[in-house]
Every structure is written in C-alpha cells, then in structure tokens.
C-alpha cells in the first residue's frame, strides 16, 4: 500500500508538469497579451508605460524562456505574481481556497446525506410512487442549469421569503474574522463563537444546496442501482428467506456493499462541483476560487491561470487517491499493485 | 426491432415521458419557423420592450422588444444540435482512443491513459474559457472546447470493455485463427460496447446541453443576435424583475436535459441485465 | 459500515484539532458586552455597508486606476486639490490654500495648510507632497503614471510651499491634482515599508493592506473580491463624520445587491442601472438616486481602407451617424441618459448634445449613394463581453445591426472577451466596434484623445482609427491647442463649442450615449449621500442618521 501511494504521487508530479505545459501553451496561443487587459486606455497609448509594463512581467522574452523561468520558480515554491492583482499567486490562492473548500465540503455533505437516503428509499420502494418521485428529484438535480437555479433560489428564498442572507460568507457588520483557518465554520467552533457559527451556516445553506444538487442527483441514482443490484444477490435472498424484515435486510446487508461505488461517484461529484462554482460564487457573492479562475481566464493572467489550474488538478488527483485508499480501508479484498 | 419493442413495453413511465419530451423538442426545432409567431431576430420593437407575458407575447418580450416565445422555440435548434454534435465527436474520439489504448496494452496503453487523465484533471470551465477566448466565441469553437473535455470518459469506458473482451476465450481463439485486428475490433469489441456507450451518451447529452448553455451564459457560446437559451438567461440576469426573460429559456434547458436523462436512465435499467430481472 | 464510521470520525477529529491549534484569536467589530452595557447611548458604533462590484485590484494610490479607486483614495488620503461637490471635475483647494502660476504657465507654486496631520500623527509638510509625486514619477509601469507624466520636477523650498515645474503648459493641471495619482502619502511611514521616491519602490504590498494618509478614514483591512473595511481616523484634522466603520462588500450580482438592500444587510447598492432600480421603486425607506458620469459609449469606424474599403469611407461614416435611431438608444440606456454631440461629455467645458430626433434615413441613404454603396455591403461589428453601467454592449450591437439594415448595411456581430477587443483596438485591426470611454481626469483636455493624429505623436483614437492629421483637419488642432492652455473658463467653453461643431462635420465615430450612475440607499439610516463620478459616493460627506 505504501509503495502504491508513492507510485501514485510520482505519477501526480508528471501529471502536474503536463498540466503546466498545457496551460502555458494554451494561454499563449491566445492572440492577445495581458497588457491590453491590465492597463487603462490612456496608458495603453503610451509606449513608455507599455514597454515598462512588459519588461516588468517578462512579456518581452521568448515563450520557452518564460516557461523555463516559470517552472524553475515553481519548483522553489514560487508560483509567480498575478498580473491582474499584482500579488503572489500563492497568496491569492490561499485567500480564496478556504472559501471554496468550505462551500464544496458543505455541498458534498448535503449531496451525500440526501443522495444516499433518497437512494435507499428509492430502492426499498422500487417502482412505487415514492420511488418515482425521488427519481424525478434526482434527475432534476442533474438537469438543472446551475446558473439559472441559483438565480431562482436566490430570488425566492432571499428576495421573497427573506429566510436567508443574500450573499457573502458572513455579516460584515458583526464579524470580521481574521487570523483563523479561513474556514469560518471551523474557526467559529474553535473560538467557541456560536453567533458566528450560526451566521456563517446561514450564509452557507443556499449556495451549498444549489451547488450540491447536481451531485445529489448522481449519488441518488448510483445508490439506488447499487442497492437493487446488491439485493438481488444470493446472500440477501438467504437473509430474506430467514424471515428478516425488508428494511433490516437493506440496512444490515445490502447497504455496506452498495456504498462502495457511491464513494467513487462522490469523488467524481466533488470534482464536478468546481464547474458549477463559477456561477454559484458569482450569484451568491462568494469570494472563492471560481470567481478568481473566471477573472484570471478572461484577463489572460497567465501565472494565475497556471496556479488555479494546478491547484484544481492537485485537488482532483488527491481526492482520487484518497478514494482509492479509502476503498482499501473499507473493503480489505481490494489490493493495490 | 424486437429489443426496441421490449424497451417500450417496460413499465417505466419516466422513460416514456423522456421520449415524449425529446421528441417534442426535436419537432419544435424542425418546425420552429412555422410555430413561432414572430421572427426571433429581426422583429425588434424597442417601444414594446419588457412586456410581461400576455396573449400577444406568450412569454413576454425582452430588452429589445423581441418575442421571448419565438426566441425560445428557435433556441432549441442551436442547443439540441450543439448537444448532439458534442456527444458525437466525444463518442467518436473516445471510442477510437480507448479502443486503441485497450487493444494495444502495455506502455502505449499506459501513456495514452495518463494523457487522458491529464486532460480530465484539467479544470473544464477554464479550459473551455481559454479555448473560447483564444479562438473567438462561436458555436463550433464551444463544441470543440466541450468535446476536448468529454472524450476521456468514453475513452476510459471503451478501454475497460476492450480489455475485458480481449481476455475472452473466443477472441483469443479468433486471434489464433489469424483474424485481423480490425476484424476483431469490428466483430467482437464494438457490438459489446455499444450498449453502455448508448447509455453514457444519452446521459451526456443532457450534460452537454447544460454546459453549452453555461458557456453561452458567460458570453462564450453563440454570437448575438442568435437566439440561444443560455444567452437568453443571461439577458434576464441584469433585470431579474423581468422574470420571464430568463425563466422560460431556463425551463427549456431544464426540460430538454431532464428528457435526455429520463431516456438514459430507462436505457440503463433496460440494458443492465441484473436490473432487467427485477423490472 | 463500522469501518466507514471509524474512518469518518478519525478524519473529523484530525481536522478539528489541526484547525483549533492554528487559530490566533478573533477580531470583531462588535462591542464587548460589558463596554456597551455601561454606556449604551453613545457606544453603539455606526457601521455603513456598501454593496458593489468594485473590482479593486490595489489600494496603493500610485497604482490605482479602477473605477472605484478614488472612492477609497478620497476616504483615506488628501490631495492638494479635491473635486468640488456637485461638479464633474471642478477643482477646489484642499491641502493647498492658494496657487500662483508664472507667465510661462509651467511653474505652479502652492501654499499648503499647516494644520494637516497624518493618521500616524506626523505633520503633513511639503516634503511629503514632493516625495509622493516623485514616487509615482518613478513607477512608469503604473496606470497612474500618465497623470503625473507632465511634471518635470517638484521642489519643497520650505515646509509649507511646493513648486511644480511642468514640461509643457497644461490648463488641466489643477484637475489632474484631484486624482489618486497625486495623493499625499506619509513619507516617513511609507519609507519604513519599502517606499522610495527614486525607483525600486516596494511599498505596494504594504499599502494594499492599510493606508498612510490624512483622510477622514483609514484602511483597516482588505480582502480583494470580498470586503474592504475603513475605520474612522481618530487623528483627522478636519470635521469628522459620525460614522465609525464603512465596509465595502463585493457583490458581483446586482440581484444580490437589491435583495440585500431591501433586507437591510447593506445600506447602499452601487451597481444598479435604471432598469434594475425599478425593483426598488416605491419601497419604504429606500431612495434611488442618479449621478452624472463622464462615461460614454460609441461606435468606432476605422479609416483604414485595408480593413474595409466601404466602412472607411467618410461619407459612409456620416451616413451611419444619420441612420442611427438615437431615440431607441435613449430608451435602452434608460432614465438620465444623454447623447453627446461628439467627443465632449456633458459636464465638461462647452459640451453640446445631440437632438434625439436627428435620425434622417433619407439623408443617410443619399450619402450611401453618394459614396457609391446604395446597395449596401457586409461588415463585421465587434463588441466585447462588457457593459456600460449595466447596458450590455451586445444589446447595443443588436440595435445597431437593426438600424443599419435600413440603409442596406448588413452587420455581422462578433462578440469577444474584452481583453481581446482591447488588444485588437491597440492593433487598429477592427473596421467597426463598440467601445466606451471614461476620462482619466475630468477635463476636456483628456478628450483630445479623439482628435486626428497617427504615429508616435498621434492620439489614442487617431491611431486606433488611422485617422490621419491632414491640412484639412488641422483647424481641429488649432482650436484644441487654444483650449489646452486657455485658463479663462468662458473662452474655453466658446472654443470647445466651435471645436465640437467642426468635429461633427467629419469624424470616424458615432457617439451613442452618456450614461448616468444609478444607485440606491437606505434613507432611514443615511444622510448626505452625494455622488461624483471621480470618487463615486463621497464617503467623507456621508453621515448616519
């Protein structure tokens, strides 16, 4: 197992190198340069300012030279300076990443809790009305355009009903959390500040539901079909023939096996969240990686695009690795080569 | 033909509903010019903008006074075409790549699979945005960008099927008998993989339509004044008090996606033999 | 099942312990329960929250140029001159008390107030002024640099006198002094954090987290794209407002701003326009307000024949100006929009507006025929993914397409990412495009960027449209040169009118709209909400009820 992890980590390094080459090439394919995106109209007309700007960011050097400089800095832990924000990319990422992690973890918790329970109910009541309704909900989950769903949820729950705050992570009038982990829920718990906990949770609910809805659909679907499959196995029939109650059969026997593939889907779903993130963060004023990625891409901020892409790629790889390891822990039959 | 009949005989209400929804949208797409009361582009009327839904304009009018109903009808042409073409390209590329990779095995397989993993680990939206920005946003570039993101899924599926089929005794036997690679691929491997691929591609069709409208929503899809659902939702965003501008195209995207998903679900239940036993 | 649980529990425990040990105390602006209990009348701090999409990327006055830059710099810093409330760009003395200008119109001598102190407690003297200007003069890659560029040297003969020597006479110099490029920094403090007036300045990082000025507020914290916190400057030398904290909260969605304002989560919603503001009409305790801006949206038509022999024809360009349905654009822009006759915005010296009924299709068709294109032609109209005060450029482009179809011009719209459009604009490689313009300083001199002239000494739009300076259009520059140095306002306005009328006869633009800024605020909690295009909401005037 240890060797397996080492092998995977080595592969990850190769993968990241590949990703960095790809980002670099693609972003330099663009027939534009960051000068136009980052200088004002008057400054753009002034050759003196443009030249000084290009020299400062190394834009006047050939492409391979820019790449070599970039990679060698990266190996020293320096991800460059964002052209748009003028701050170190690492600093930017560290500022925005906790917000995104917090939101996606909550979205995942909601998705898994709802998804698994819907899936179980759906399987127990297979082909009965309850099953049909739950399946309709789960299919809606994977069919709703998140940008539209987010707008809808916001206008109903914040605008009309006024049940939830209309955006941001916390009420800035009352709280200004600094110096913590950046994960406000965790910070609030560790500081024992229950008011802050309640406030940050209230801000989390809506965006997390919108974001998790898609993954919830995926998980419901997977849980249902896995359970149905498991329930047709011989050992379940044996249990049933011994006169066990149906619900007990499901919970005691079928579920354990059925949940393993659900973990895979959850991992996939977690990575999927990042796609919806751009929209959800924008509509709910959530200061996270999604917005940062969007702005970096549209202003052709190469160092920031590379940084964000690498961060997301690392997240993807690490989550997949964790899932594979989790498999082994849960199901000892699985061996790693 | 027999299998098709069986498929429809299923007690699956949602599968049938999915067929109905998708068929209806395809008809709408074909007959849009007949069904639409107004022209989606040239019937501008600034004086009559932001009209709420009434008998004259079923879905109201947008910021340039165009009929939202007609634009939603016409929008189906673009969204559905884009979805189908994206899935077809990813399907083709994926089957080829995965088939070759699985069939060759060894180092070639390793390298090819690492490459597809690399593409997969790349944040899809950033990739799409950068590609769209680089090539200029229009329908074909968005489709191209989405296909780049999607093919690895098909490649992985094909590969796993190819590997499992390859180990079968009858394939080994055929190879010993001197059948060509192409023949084996064509005769044995393709028929075995087509079922799962069909499920995957119908499910993906919904996803492709969602993602395409998402790109258009960000301004990276179609060019105005073309009517496209995602772009129409974004028209309504700045003015959400005119709810009809974004609600109807949003519902349209939702209904097509849900139709495709219903069909995909039904197909899967049917094609998965273990499922069928219980249906 | 038990195994899953065990794994989950271990993970959670690990995570919480790791995070708990990493935290380092909490800062909130909420008063301690004990303190407010004893003195409940006065201790309640007044906090104002502003919702906006500011896109601020730095808080260093030497680097800022974003639309909301001066809202912050006016709160945290002082300049020699500031914009007079209720005007677009009229300067009034702030730290300076008087100015004398020599006969060459290049040497400005300012007397300074002697009672100005920085938030640090240091006295503001002339050496701070000179140091701050020299700092920006040595930051040539900065957007603020173009405003200070004309200064050839700054001297501080005594503590309260500053002498600026300009490279060339400039009637708009006092106006330029009101912008963030001329903010006066506390040189002692900034030097300690890497500040330098001779190049190699590294104070930006520090200035992004705090301020070193003498304004009514100090910057307490800033998390880009999340929030900016301003706190009352306890050492403020002027009359302080009754607000303790101002928070600028980033809300990229206009709908979020509108609901938040209605729910009382924010006090001012800055990102509205005339359409979105309608949701707030008639709501109890909410006031909708319009402020004049110098933001214009217009069509640019290149004179470069290689891009399009048809579109570059001056007759065709004139026909386009006649074919546009100005009434329609006014409707699109909404309440408060105006149509500038051409390159001088309403609010600037001698500005003229266009009559909204001036569409004349017959004349336009005649001009098309005269140019030899009665049957029309195809042309690509490029527009960026961008908007002017909430009016999407793609909406404008679709209207233009419709209008020009009337004179047989078949327009194909091409929308691109804004950066790509700016790049193409710089290369002058688009025959027809939608663009906007907001001046760097509020004076007509800034608008000469639209006059003809190509090459090294050319103007911004002269180069972008390949509109060459010829003997025929030389009279434009003769007038402009007079305006550039004329200090008498009446004469300046008169020259300006002449110039605009002359410009109207032949130019490669079609000016569509000048936009107002629409915002709304909670009138139950706020007073004196004044707007000025340079510094947006004037935070120093703002008071709480």
Gyration radius of chain A, to the nearest Å? 24 Å
Oligomer: heterotrimer
Low-confidence stretches of chain A: none
Rounded mean pLDDT score of chain A: 81
Shape type of chain C: globular
What count of helical segments of chain C does DSSP give?
17
- Percent of residues in helices of chain A comes to over 70%
> Termini distance of chain C?
60 Å
Q: How big a fraction of the residues of chain C is strand? A: 15-25%
Q: Largest sheet of chain C, if any?
A: 8 strands, mixed
Please identify the structural class of chain A as seen in this structure: mainly alpha
Shape designation of chain A? globular
Backbone structural class of chain C:
alpha+beta
Largest β-sheet summary of chain A: none
- Low-confidence parts of chain C: 1-42
Describe this structure as you would to a colleague:
The complex is a heterotrimer of chains A (337), B (279) and C (545). Chain A is mainly alpha-helical and 337 residues long. Helix content of chain A is 77%, strand content 0%. Chain A contains 14 helices and no strands. Chain A has helices at residues 2-29, 34-38, 41-44, 47-57, 63-75, 89-124, 129-143, 146-160, 184-191, 194-231, 234-241, 246-283, 289-298, 302-330. The N and C termini of chain A lie close together (8 Å). Chain B has one domain: MetI-like (MetI-like fold), CATH 1.10.3720. Mean pLDDT of chain B is 82; it is low at 275-279. Chain C has 545 residues and is α+β, with helices and mostly antiparallel strands. In chain C, 30% of the residues lie in helices and 23% in strands. Chain C has helices spanning 2-22, 33-38, 69-76, 126-137, 145-148, 173-176, 187-192, 204-207, 254-262, 314-323, 326-333, 361-371, 393-405, 418-427, 460-465, 474-485, 489-505, and strands at residues 47-52, 81-83, 91-93, 96-101, 107-112, 151-158, 161-166, 217-223, 227-232, 245-250, 268-272, 286-301, 377-384, 387-388, 391-392, 409-416, 432-437, 509-522, 526-527, 531-532, 536-537, 543-544. Chain C has an eight-stranded mixed sheet with strand order 8-9-10-1-11-18-12-17. A four-stranded antiparallel sheet of chain C has the order 4-5-7-6, covered by helices on one side. Chain C has a two-stranded antiparallel ribbon with strand order 2-3. In chain C, helix 10 (314-323) packs antiparallel against helix 12 (361-371) and helix 16 runs antiparallel to helix 17. The longest helix of chain C has 21 residues, at 2-22. The N and C termini of chain C lie far apart (60 Å). Mean pLDDT of chain C is 87; it is low at 1-42.
């Amino acid at each position: 197992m240890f060797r397996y992890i080492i092998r995977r980590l080595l592969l990850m390094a190769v993968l990241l190198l590949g990703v960095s080459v790809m980002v670099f090439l693609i972003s330099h394919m663009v027939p534009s340069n960051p000068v136009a995106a980052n200088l004002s109209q008057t400054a753009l007309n002034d050759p003196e300012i443009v030249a000084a700007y290009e020299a400062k960011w190394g834009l006047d050097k050939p492409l391979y030279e820019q790449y070599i400089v970039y990679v060698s800095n990266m190996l020293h832990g320096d991800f460059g300076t964002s052209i748009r924000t003028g701050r170190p990319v690492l600093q930017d990422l560290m500022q925005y990443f906790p917000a995104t992690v917090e939101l996606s973890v909550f979205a995942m918790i909601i998705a898994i809790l709802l998804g698994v329970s819907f899936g179980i109910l759906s399987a127990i009541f297979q082909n009965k009305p309850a099953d049909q309704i739950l399946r309709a909900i789960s299919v809606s989950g994977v069919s709703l355009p998140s940008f539209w769903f987010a707008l809808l949820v916001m206008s109903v729950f914040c605008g009309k009903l006024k049940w939830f705050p209309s955006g941001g992570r916390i009420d800035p009038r009352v709280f200004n959390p600094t110096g913590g982990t950046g994960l406000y829920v965790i910070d609030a718990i560790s500081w024992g500040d229950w008011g802050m906990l309640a406030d940050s949770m209230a801000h989390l609910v809506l965006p997390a539901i919108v974001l998790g809805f898609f993954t919830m659909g995926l998980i419901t679907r997977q849980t249902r079909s896995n359970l149905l499959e498991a329930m047709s196995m011989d050992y379940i029939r044996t249990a049933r023939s011994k006169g066990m109650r149906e619900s007990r059969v499901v919970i005691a026997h079928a579920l354990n096996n059925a949940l393993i593939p659900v973990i895979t889907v959850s991992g996939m779903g977690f990575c999927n969240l990042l796609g919806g993130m751009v929209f959800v963060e924008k509509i709910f004023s959530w200061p996270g990686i999604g917005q940062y990625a969007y702005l970096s891409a549209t202003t052709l901020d190469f160092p920031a695009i590379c940084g964000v892409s690498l961060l997301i790629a690392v997240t993807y790889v690490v989550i997949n690795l964790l899932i594979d390891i989790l498999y082994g822990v849960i199901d000892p039959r699985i061996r790693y080569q | 033909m027999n299998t098709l009949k069986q498929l429809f005989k299923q007690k699956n209400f949602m599968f049938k509903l999915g067929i109905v929804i998708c068929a209806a949208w395809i008809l709408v797409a074909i007959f849009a010019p007949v069904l639409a009361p107004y022209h989606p582009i040239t019937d501008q009327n600034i004086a009559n903008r932001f009209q709420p839904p009434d008998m004259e304009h079923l879905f109201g009018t947008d910021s340039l006074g165009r009929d939202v109903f007609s634009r939603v009808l016409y929008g189906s042409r673009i969204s559905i075409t884009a979805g189908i073409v994206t899935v077809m390209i990813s399907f083709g590329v994926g089957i080829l790549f995965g088939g070759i990779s699985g069939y060759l095995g060894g180092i070639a397989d390793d390298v090819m699979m690492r490459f597809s993993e690399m593409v997969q680990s790349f944040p899809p939206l950033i990739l799409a945005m950068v590609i769209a920005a680089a090539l200029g946003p229009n329908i074909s570039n968005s489709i191209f960008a989405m296909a780049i993101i999607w093919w690895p899924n098909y490649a992985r599926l094909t590969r796993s099927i190819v590997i499992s089929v390859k180990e079968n005794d009858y394939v080994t036997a055929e190879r010993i008998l001197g059948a060509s690679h192409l023949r084996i691929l064509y005769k044995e491997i393709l028929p075995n993989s087509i079922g799962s691929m069909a499920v995957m591609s119908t499910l993906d069709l919904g996803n492709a339509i969602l993602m395409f409208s998402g790109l258009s929503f960000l301004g990276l899809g179609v060019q105005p004044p073309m009517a496209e659902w995602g772009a129409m939702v974004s028209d309504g965003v700045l003015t959400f008090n005119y709810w009809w501008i974004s609600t109807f195209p949003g519902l349209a995207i939702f209904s097509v996606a849900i139709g495709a998903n219903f069909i995909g679900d039904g197909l899967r239940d049917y094609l998965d033999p273990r499922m069928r036993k219980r249906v | 099942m038990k195994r899953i649980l065990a794994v989950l529990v271990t993970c959670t425990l690990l995570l919480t312990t790791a995070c708990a040990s990493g935290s380092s105390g909490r800062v909130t602006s909420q008063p301690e329960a004990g303190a407010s209990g004893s003195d409940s009348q006065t201790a309640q701090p007044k906090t104002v929250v502003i919702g906006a999409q500011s896109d601020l990327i730095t808080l260093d006055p030497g680097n800022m140029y974003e639309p909301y830059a001066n809202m912050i710099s006016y709160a945290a810093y002082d300049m020699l001159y500031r914009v007079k409330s209720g005007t677009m760009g009229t300067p009034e003395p702030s730290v300076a008390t008087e100015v004398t200008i020599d006969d060459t119109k290049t040497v400005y001598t300012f007397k300074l107030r002697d009672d100005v102190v920085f938030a640090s407690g240091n006295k503001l003297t002339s050496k701070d002024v000179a140091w701050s200007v020299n700092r920006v003069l040595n930051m040539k890659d900065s957007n603020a640099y173009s405003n200070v560029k004309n200064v050839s040297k700054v001297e501080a003969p005594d503590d309260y006198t500053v002498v600026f020597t300009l490279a060339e006479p400039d009637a708009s110099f006092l106006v330029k002094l009101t912008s963030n490029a001329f903010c006066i920094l506390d040189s002692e403090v900034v030097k300690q954090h890497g500040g330098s007036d001779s190049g190699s300045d590294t104070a930006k990082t520090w200035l992004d987290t705090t301020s070193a000025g003498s304004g009514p507020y100090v910057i307490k914290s800033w998390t880009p794209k999340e929030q900016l916190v301003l706190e009352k400057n306890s050492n403020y030398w002027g009359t302080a407002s009754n607000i303790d904290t101002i928070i600028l909260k980033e809300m990229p969605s206009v709908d979020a701003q509108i609901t938040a304002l209605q729910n009382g989560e924010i006090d001012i919603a800055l990102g509205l326009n005339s359409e979105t503001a309608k949701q707030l009409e008639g709501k109890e305790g909410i006031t909708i307000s319009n402020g004049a801006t110098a933001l214009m949206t217009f069509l640019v038509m290149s004179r470069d024949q290689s891009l399009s022999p048809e579109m570059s024809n001056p007759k065709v360009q004139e026909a386009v100006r006649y074919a546009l349905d100005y009434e329609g654009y006014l409707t699109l822009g909404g309440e408060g929009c105006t149509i500038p006759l051409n390159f001088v915005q309403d609010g600037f010296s001698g500005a003229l507006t266009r009559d909204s009924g001036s569409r004349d299709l017959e004349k336009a068709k005649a001009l098309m025929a005269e140019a030899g294109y009665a049957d029309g032609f195809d042309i690509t109209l490029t527009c960026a993914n961008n908007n002017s005060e909430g009016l999407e450029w793609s909406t404008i482009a679709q209207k233009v397409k419709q209008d020009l179809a009337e004179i047989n011009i078949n327009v194909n719209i091409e929308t691109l990412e804004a950066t790509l459009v700016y790049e193409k604009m710089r290369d002058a490689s688009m025959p027809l495009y939608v663009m906007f313009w907001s001046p760097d300083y509020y004076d007509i001199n800034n608008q000469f960027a639209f006059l003809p002239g190509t090459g090294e000494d050319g103007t911004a739009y002269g180069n972008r449209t390949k509109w060459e300076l010829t003997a025929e259009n030389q009279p434009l520059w003769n007038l402009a040169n007079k305006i550039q140095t004329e200090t008498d306002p009446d004469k300046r306005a008169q020259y300006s009118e002449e110039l605009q009328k002359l410009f109207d006869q032949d130019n490669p633009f079609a000016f569509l709209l000048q936009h107002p800024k629409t915002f709304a605020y909670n009138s139950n909690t706020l007073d004196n909400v004044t707007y000025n295009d340079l510094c947006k909401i004037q935070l120093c005037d703002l008071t709480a009820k």
